[in-house]
Amino acid sequence: MTSIPPVRVLLVDDHAVVRQGLRLFLGLDEQIEVVGEAANGEEALAQAEELRPAVVVMDLMMPVMDGIAATRELRRRLPGTEVIALTSTLEEHKVNGAIEAGAISYMLKDASSDALAEAIHAAARGEVRLHPEAARRLVRDFRSGEMRETLTPKETVVLQLLARGQSNRDIAQDQGVSEATVKTHVSRLLSKLGLESRTQAALYALKHGVASLDGVEM
């Protein structure tokens, strides 16, 4: 039977003792491999490009480059790498900033080692894990339509085309870009809107007037 390789993880925190503790706890899970550490956002980007981890566990408040800026840039450079924001605050601008930047999960540092390990495995599968308060705020913002304002013009066009039932290939041909570029736009807009699927994105577009029912294949 073919064994499943462990999830490769990069730890990013400006406190060495926090990184050591995380490495110790995560080392208890045979299906997680901590491949590197970084003390700030700039180090995280360099390490991520060299090591190509599946998941980056990212502190938000760091010197040189904070976790939100690092997450945004990392997701731009390595869209296949997921980011878990692991921080000590539930300040609204931090929660929204991390999710808008592309973090797939938002957790507090007092989370249990089991909860963090589960979130890492979930992130590797492309699944979201959020602190309950972070989830509540995202639901509120989703209902009010505020999150839509974070989309770039190109992401808005892609969202409209998703609502019309177009595939990544269709969108790529329509916009004159590669399918890989479309996949990146889809991944980012789903993260920004706090959604998990193309179907949810299409429903969001219709609900908030980003697209109409005309020409939509449901």
TrEMBL record:
This is Two component transcriptional regulator, LuxR family. The modification 4-aspartylphosphate is found at residue 59. It comes from Deinococcus reticulitermitis. Keywords: DNA-binding, Phosphoprotein. PANTHER family: TWO-COMPONENT RESPONSE REGULATOR. Pfam families: GerE, Response_reg. GO terms for biological process: phosphorelay signal transduction system; regulation of DNA-templated transcription. The keyword Hydrolase does not apply. The keyword Cytoplasm does not apply. Residues 8-124 form the Response regulatory domain. Transmembrane segments: none annotated. Residues 144-209 form the HTH luxR-type domain. It comes from the Bacteria. GO terms for molecular function: DNA binding.
